[in-house]
Methyltransferase domain-containing protein (Glutamicibacter soli), 275 residues
Amino acid sequence: MARDAAPTLVGSYPIDTGLAEIESDPYGANRYILKVNGVPSSHVDLDDPGYLDFEYMRWMEPIFLTGYPPEDYDGRARKLRVLHLGGGGCSMARWVASRYENARQVVVELDAKLAELVRTNFQVPRAPLVRLRVGDAGQVLPTLSEDSRDIIIRDVFAGSTTPRQLTTVGYARQAQRVLDAGGVYILNCGDTADLAGARAEAATLLSVFKHVALIADPPMLKGRRYGNIVFLAGDEPLALGPAFERSLRTAPLPAQLVSDSAVARFAGSAAPIED
């Protein structure tokens, strides 16, 4: 049974990059929304780390469960190795820890005070299960060993956009270098209705990886609103079978899978983002 949240959990907290706010979720007891400088960053259920509220995170679930079945990782002979570029409230790290016994995770967070706030209040498993590393994601990734991660998740935002240096061809190549055979690079891309940023990210990934796919809800793909697109890329075929697509179609916010040559059509004439 998860312990109750501290009575003073809800409130505003000065952090290195500005202000963090923790608000109660009116739709669930012991659920909280973390805002960073006024922008919703994470949702955390302290009673159920397996609950994900943000839709783009729910779309990430089948990438794990289909491509890396938990029964294949017993926590002894084989441990799932996950790198999170961008920490926030550690929602995905808590989810992975709840699904994969003894997984080894590193969460890179730029803001030291935010990392401490999350560690103190959001019941993040301790190292070596989840290690919070304070640092710039652009500087940390190139320092990591080759073939050392099964999954890399890039979920870094400055305001509503990802810093450009984390979107380039060179950065994608660093992710490719750090991923082990069969590894997957997962990216959360926030974009406006013109989709220019997402198309450029698609072109960038296609220039580096052999296999690229993307997930988004249909209105987003039709350029009707601001929202999130989840990219996944790897050098081995991605596990995107019928069960994967069915899980996306039946999600609370149904999503569409775009893969193979359709990603190139989505990218269109966009050029890769050079360093």
